[in-house]
Amino acid sequence: MSLLPPVAADTATTTIVIYSGGMDSFTVLHRALREGLTVHALSFDYGQRHARELDTARQVCASLGLPHQVVDIRAMHGLIDNSALTDPDQAMPKGDYGADNLRATVVPNRNMILLSLAIAKAVNIGAERVDYGAHGGDHVLYPDCRPEFVEAMNHVAGIANFEPVELHAPYLTASKADILRDGLAMGLDYRHTWTCYEGRELACGVCGSCRERLAAFAANGVTDPLAYSEDSAVGQH
Q1: What confidence tens digit (pLDDT) does each residue in 71-84 have?
Q2: Is 21 annotated for ligand binding?
Q3: Which parts of the sequence bind Zn(2+) (predicted)?
Q4: In this structure, what DSSP letter does residue 80 have?
Q5: Residue 145 annotated as binding?
């Protein structure tokens, strides 16, 4: 069953979509378009380990003719560099998602920072909403993807400016497989996304992000269209 609501379910007309270039935000972006909203995509360069997702985001937005801003906040890299996602000298943990093996991928306070900037953008252009792709699979590892964080941040977004902004996380209690199911129902082509923690030519297939993605495709009975490294131990399930 699709998780998509009726098209006219929201009173907002314009939204800022935090768009990383990954499959979750790719689905959120298209879901907002399906709702009939005017979408402004917003991406952030905070000194990630690689720029493959940002390059993918640029290409998708250009193909859709969407306004897209990539904000350079690399000056803050020294504040958040104690993470495998921001420090290329750290070994990237492999294996399935879990607090025991992927804690090294937590970027301190990332979503609060990005959401604050997105809310500012919304107020600046008169957008009523900010969308981002937090989902149920992230709850075990990332505190700033949990419902209590989103609820509190949504409250702050309503009082931080004279113009209240709604924080919208449509997949907050859904799984990665649920998100993919919605995207497939919309006819989305996930070869136009990048999920791998590594920035190589081909996805590695063994990092936690790749494994979660592959599991979502397997749960939906379809093959991931993204190319994976031939020496991947995971492959296409």
Answers
A1: 998 887 776 665 55
A2: yes
A3: 196, 204, 207, 210
A4: S
A5: no
